[in-house]
Write a structure and sequence with these properties.
The complex is a heterodimer of chains A (115) and B (115).
Chain A: E1 4-6, E2 10-13, E3 19-25, E4 31-38, E5 42-51, E6 54-57, E7 65-70, E8 73-78, E9 87-94, E10 105-106, E11 110-114
Parallel strand pairs in A: 2-11
Antiparallel strand pairs in A: 1-3, 3-8, 4-5, 4-9, 5-6, 7-8, 9-10, 9-11
Chain B: E1 9-13, E2 18-23, E3 31-38, E4 45-50, E5 55-56, E6 61-64, E7 70-75, E8 84-92, E9 109-114
Parallel strand pairs in B: 1-9
Antiparallel strand pairs in B: 2-7, 3-4, 3-8, 5-6, 6-7, 8-9
The chains are: A mainly beta (115), B mainly beta (115).
């Protein structure tokens, strides 16, 4: 089974701190995604990556950056955390972007609270 | 993006079939119909997807209307473990390279399964 792991289930940070959220997948997937999930807003795509060192903005990239130095690892970075970035963050991976193998496999999520 | 409409909530009894409807009247020819579900305190998980023909897998069946403007996810025998939020998503997999097969999650249907 594909496994997507996220470094923390719960994280509490202070406003202005730099925050790193790590995601690792073990199935050699090309594509990795970062979403945030908020009540009433559903899941929204922040960034995705289709190859090592490649990244594309999603729907809400402002305030975030990403890093993909190795195929299995995709990091989400909050350069200066703000209270409106308090959310559930979900990482996902997929073998391909389209076609038969494009289902996304999600990690368990990181609930980030910014005080 | 073409939109989907789902009921906010549905209820079922254990071991009974469940039919979860989804309307997508503005679906385009290159939109695949995807279903994901999210169990409590977990990330979403893929359930099934299809284009025109009905689809079956070990988790569920997907019935797609002939005009593709609606679809139904069928759980043949609901269990308590099937209690989750079910998302019906249209995913554009058209040629041209402008779409990266983005998943846009709406509010979904909260399925409650009674013992």
């Amino acid at each position: 089974d594909v496994k997507v792991t996220q470094s923390s289930r719960y994280l509490v940070k202070r406003t202005g701190e730099k925050v790193f959220l790590e995601c690792v997948q073990d199935m050699d997937h090309e594509n990795m995604f970062w979403y945030r999930q908020d009540p009433g807003l559903g899941l929204r795509l922040i960034y995705f990556s289709y190859d090592v060192k490649m990244k594309e903005k999603g729907d809400i990239p402002e305030g975030y950056s990403v890093s993909r130095e190795k195929k299995e690892r995709f990091s989400l970075i909050l350069e200066s955390a703000s209270t409106n970035q308090t959310s559930m963050y979900l990482c996902a991976s997929s073998l391909s972007l389209t076609g038969l193998s494009n289902e996304q496999f999600f990690g368990p999520g990181t609930r980030l609270t910014v005080l | 993006d073409a939109k989907t409409t789902q009921p906010n909530s549905m209820e079922s009894n254990e071991e009974e079939p469940v039919h979860l409807p989804c309307n997508h009247s503005t679906i385009s020819g290159t939109d695949y119909i995807h279903w994901y579900r999210q169990l409590p305190s977990q990330g979403p998980e893929y359930v099934i997807h299809g284009l025109t023909s009905n689809v079956n897998n070990r988790m569920a069946s997907l019935a797609i209307a002939e005009d593709r403007k609606s679809s139904t996810l069928i759980l043949h025998r609901a269990t308590l473990r099937d209690a989750a939020v079910y998302y019906c998503i249209l995913r554009d997999e058209g040629a041209g390279g402008t779409s990266y097969g983005k998943l846009t999650f709406g509010q979904g249907t909260i399925l409650t399964v009674h013992p």
